Every structure is written in C-alpha cells, then in structure tokens.
Automatic annotation (TrEMBL):
Alphabetized GO MF terms: GTPase activator activity
Source superkingdom: Eukaryota
Protein name as catalogued: RHG27 protein
GO biological process, one term: signal transduction
Species of provenance: Certhia brachydactyla
SUPFAM superfamilies from the UniProt entry: GTPase activation domain, GAP
InterPro entries in alphabetical order: Rho-GAP, Rho_GTPase_activation_prot, RhoGAP_dom
Stored Pfam families: RhoGAP
Domain Rho-GAP: from-to ranges: 1-136
This protein's GO CC annotations: cytoplasm
Keywords: GTPase activation
Length: 136
C-alpha cells in the first residue's frame, strides 16, 4: 500500500532496486517456484544425462501455474539481459544464480542440508538462464 516515488534519487542506485526486487520475491507467500515443485527441480538438476536434465527442467517450468510461469519468463528474460552486460556489471550467470537462486527456489521448511540445497538452487537458476531460449 506504500506509495513510492520512483523519480526519487535513491532509486538510481541499482543495489536499492535489486534489493527491493529480491525482498519482494522473498516475501511472497510462496516462491516463484512453488513449494510443490522444489523437490522436482532439485531432482532434475541432479540428472547426469544433460539432454534428459534439460528436457526435465523445461517440462517442470512448463508445468508451473500460469502466473508463476509468466513471471518467471519475464524475470529470466531480464536477468539474461543483465548477464549480457557482465563485462560492465560483473554479473555472470553464476553470480546472478547465487544472488537469485535461494530467493526464487526454496523448500517449504528450512530443515535439512541448507548448504546442499543452495548449491542445487543456484544450479537450477543457472540452467534456466543458460537455456532460456529453449525453455521459454
């Protein structure tokens, strides 16, 4: 309900804008990748056969509820554009995945090995970024 003036000078700092986006995504009642899909994405990224992994992740993205799928498509299109400018912004695919992985894809409960989850969360985001054109 807060009214924001995006012309205010403090929005010019990209870290403020990125932080606001991450906070918004983190505070959603359910992450962009729904809790019901978390284990499926983690299992898919662990598949050794790269072709099978790619098909599985693409099918999982396509199986997302329309609002999640459509939001993911727009967000990842933007993140791909960020990566295109990695020489200037130092945001490689791996960097973007580290920043957004745990925000976009998280388990319903924080039980279990969070460090291992984080590795796989980042790998899922990295895979989607690297294969955006095929997935969407």
């Amino acid at each position: 309900d807060e009214q924001l003036d995006l012309d205010d000078g403090h929005w010019e700092d990209i870290h403020v804008v990125t932080g606001a986006l991450k906070l918004f995504l983190r505070e959603l009642p359910e992450p962009l990748v729904p809790f019901s899909h978390f284990d499926k994405f983690i299992a898919a990224i662990k598949i050794q056969d790269l072709s099978l992994r790619g098909h599985c992740i693409r099918d999982l993205v396509l199986s997302l509820p329309p609002a999640h799928h459509d939001t993911m498509k727009v967000l990842f299109r933007h993140l791909c554009r960020v990566v295109e400018h990695k020489e200037e912004n130092r945001m490689s695919v791996q960097s973007v995945a580290i920043v957004f992985g745990p925000t976009l894809l998280r388990p319903a409960s924080e039980e279990g090995n969070m460090a291992m989850h984080m590795v796989f969360q980042n790998q899922v985001v990295e895979h989607i970024l690297n294969h955006y054109g095929i997935i969407f």
